[in-house]
Amino acid sequence: MTPTYYLLLSALLFSLGAVGVLVRRNAIVVFMCVELMLNAVNLTLVTFSRMHGELDGQVMGFFVMVVAAAEVVVGLTIIMSIFRTRRSASVDDSNLLKY
Amino acid sequence: MTESVAASGLASLAWLLLALPAFGAAVLLLAGKRADKWGHLLGCATIIAAFAYGVALFFTTLGQGPEERTSELHLFDWIPVGALNVEFGLRIDPLSLTFVLLITGVGSLIHIYSIGYMAHEDGRRKFFAYLNLFVSAMLLLVLGNGFVTLYFGWEGVGLASYLLIGWYQYKPEAATAAKKAFLMNRVGDLGLAIAIFIMFKELGTTQYTDVFARVDELSSGSILAITLLLLLGACGKSGQFPLQAWLPDAMAGPTPVSALIHAATMVTAGVYLIARSHPLYDLSPDGRLVVMIIGAVTLLIGCLIGMAYDDFKKVLAYSTVSQIGYMILAVGLGPVGYALGILHLLAHGFFKAGLFLGAGSVMHGMNDEGDIRRMGGLAKYMPITFATWGLGYLALIGIPPFSGFFSKDAIIAAAFGEPGWRGYVFGGVALLGAALTAFYMTRLLLLVFLGKARWKDLKTADGKDYHPHESPLSMTIPMIVLAVGSVGIGWFLESGDRLAGWLEPSLGPLEETHGVIDHTTVAILSVGLSLVGVAIAFLLFGRKPQPVERPLRVSFPVRAARADLYGNALNEALFARPGTWLSRALVFVDNKGVDGLVNGTAALLGGSSGRLRRLQTGFVRSYALSMLLGAICVLGALLMVRFS
Amino acid sequence: MSLLNLAQDFVVAAQPAAPVADTIGTGETIAFWILGPLSLAGALGMLFARNAVHSALWLVLTMLSLGVIYMVQQAPFLGFVQIIVYTGAIMMLFLFVLMLVGRDSSDSIVEVLRGQRLAAAVLGVGFAGLVVGSLAQAFTRVRSVGLASVNNSGGGNVANIGSELFTKYLFVFELTSALLITAAVGAMVLAYSDRHGKGEKKTQRELVEERFKGDRPGSLPGPGVFATANSVATPALLPDGSVAEESLSALIETTTKERLADDVAGVSGTGHQADAHALTGSASAKEGE
């Protein structure tokens, strides 16, 4: 077992998150899948930091977390205000770009 | 070919010959309606002035010795492009002077005639402008000192001919005839152009002096090609087989046009071309043979068709075709015949112009009626016309001592002088032609001027009675002058080989022929056969009155002759129909192919965009799907690059 | 702090003593082989759970296992931050919002877009295969250095991260703090709803004027006025005996008959005996039917 296995795990988690974004219809669940993707990337960063032997990867992962937090806050507020006006949290309802 | 010197003295003003008619044409065309009062007078004045100058030049040249008679006047460098150096200059030598006199002389007579003939037309000024244009172009044709200048004049006369044939623009047959003439001329012009190209390619020059001096450098193949192509050009312009169909149709133009252009001058341009290029023809017996064959065939065709037509001018037109066939036969004979061809050309110019003017006078007096079956017995009513026409008729059929006898006779004798079977064939054809010519001309005479006056029982096209009357002086005087020419010119030029001697610097010495039949016998035979033709015509047409309606149940030769010996039908089948099919096919290709391509592209774009827009579903998830797909593609590309 | 020390000891214990290069011991291997599939299971569960709250909980599982993986990988600080901040704060925030908003709207089974599921599955498998394959191939010969030397010198993992954060990545740090402030302000702005101030509140005078301009100057009868029973749901009767429409309760009227049967019986007089003071008449008896 090498640290490469962590990278493979992270790749799998990332693709699962991507598939989740495509498949789920509840906006919040879609958001959670995005969070999953971010976590997978975090895992990659930590593994690389270990492989390099420096702490830069971990610091980057820390920043990713900060940004993810901010993003979640704003995103959920948006979802909530949309829900208030439209009474629906489905992603499919915003289809005004249809031909 | 004697050497040429630079023109000096009176000859240095030779450009006046071109400039005067051109000036006349320009003024008359540009001045517009203001010039209607005096336009015809200016038109005649320019030509008469040109004639006067031509006569003066002629006598000056006559005064010089034979070696000095060829001079060239360089006007300007026309096309100095790389290896091609075409100069615009005039060659003043006996041959061109002869033609100058013919053109301006007969031309001025016809201009004067036109004053009276076109008196009731509004566009008379324009008519004179076109006539002047024609004369200017024709003079350039004969005076040019190179093949390209000749071609310039060639095209110019073609243009003037088109304008003048289609003078009655509102008549569809006139417009069609003008187009037909132009198109068939074009076919001939192609031959001339290619001949010039070959000349340039082989010799690098197109000036007469250079080409004829270096004729020996050409291979026999190129000489043959050039001679045949020049013949093609001559056929187009002179209405020889196979391009003869336009000449009868060109009679749709006014009679002065027929007289000037299609009798005396333009149609003789082909003969001029061959005569001028005689150094080339001297070296190519095969080319000459083809020329002779064409001449003989045309000769017979003209006679055969002319025997069956009932339109006055069309008969004369076929007569022209036939007589030019004689001229072409003559120049095809080689050094024995060049001068003879020119002799017949000059004589023919006089008497054919006279015949046409007479026909015009008759038609003018008979309310523009052209059908000879509706005439008859007009000799009493139009004596002067009858007299002049009669003299021209006698000259044409070759009765001595009129001019036609001398010229035609010489040709027949020279034809018999050919070695072997050719002598018999060509001489025999020429003799037969003489007989047939006499026949159809006599028929014309009988039906128009003699016999019962059939018109008394008929009405004109607009329902009035016929009142045939003599034409005014402006029309009769030119006819009289031409009649005098028809009478005397043949004997005058032939005796003592005067013309041949005069033309020697241009055409080379006239060789004597020693044929299977000697001259006297030929003369007796030709006159005798002509008289036989006259007699047969009298028998057929002179004894009983002729029906006004043409008989429909006739024998096959007559039917064939009435249908131009199926010349037009042949043209239509061989060229016109395939041409139409080709253009239809091209239109089809254009519509289906090209338009299909363009419209198909548009339809393709429209259709595909209609399908493609369904990709925009508006759902975020499908967009996310395409994004993932894109990401995979990018990843795949990167990996392929990385691991290749 | 003690918790952190505990974690550090755990991390140190998991490593071989005085390593020069990075080696993976059995402890780590076991940890990986347990936590890896666990996080995958959590991800799959999040994907396939029908209920949104269940999805969130599965994600919490994934995040927790990832946090432990971080600790196993010699990143104790990050591991704790993952558990405390990410799982503890962010996922809880998710759950709050789910409770407020998304609980009722659960995804239906039927997929609206044709072929979306199939395409997503194919693409997902393709993507995973591509990345996994390329990573596996790319890293065959790479030697991992390991963070042992870094973690054991200069104050440990946390101190080193701190020093990097405040020296090398200071500018980024300041930027992220600005980002956080912006996010907070933005959230406040977005969440603000003008619930009580839809226009100005009408004054007393304005309300009275409106009332008098309308068709009924008097105030509406309150619930139970002219009632013949004690129930608030009883409609008021007008002086002529008809039911006042304004006193009908929409909620009651839409309630099913069975549930109101008793009340109806009480009012109509078919059930219990009516009150002695009630007005009797055919009209009121008919109303209860």
Topology (SSEs and partners):
The complex is a heterotrimer of chains A (99), B (644) and C (289).
Chain A: H1 4-23, H2 27-52, H3 56-86
Helix pairs in contact in A: 1-2, 2-3
Chain B: E1 5-6, H1 15-31, H2 39-63, E2 71-81, E3 84-92, H3 94-117, H4 124-143, H5 147-165, H6 172-203, H7 208-213, H8 220-238, H9 246-249, H10 255-264, H11 269-276, H12 278-282, H13 285-306, H14 312-332, H15 338-365, H16 383-397, H17 403-416, H18 421-448, H19 473-494, H20 498-507, H21 519-542, H22 556-562, H23 567-612, H24 620-643
Parallel strand pairs in B: 1-2
Antiparallel strand pairs in B: 2-3
Helix pairs in contact in B: 1-2, 1-4, 2-3, 2-4, 3-4, 3-10, 3-15, 3-19, 4-5, 5-6, 6-8, 8-11, 8-13, 10-15, 11-14, 13-14, 13-18, 14-15, 14-17, 14-18, 15-16, 15-17, 15-19, 15-20, 16-18, 16-19, 17-18, 17-19, 17-21, 18-21
Chain C: H1 2-14, H2 26-48, H3 52-72, H4 76-102, H5 116-138, H6 148-152, H7 156-167, H8 170-191, H9 204-213, H10 250-253, H11 257-268, H12 282-287
Helix pairs in contact in C: 2-3, 3-4
What's the number of helices of chain B?
A: 24
Could you give the distance between the termini of chain B?
A: 83 Å
> Strands across the major sheet of chain B, in which order?
1-2-3
> Largest sheet of chain B at a glance?
3 strands, mixed
Rg of chain B (CA only): 30 Å
Beta-strand fraction estimate of chain B: under 5%
Helix/strand order of chain B, N-terminal first: EHHEEHHHHHHHHHHHHHHHHHHHHHH
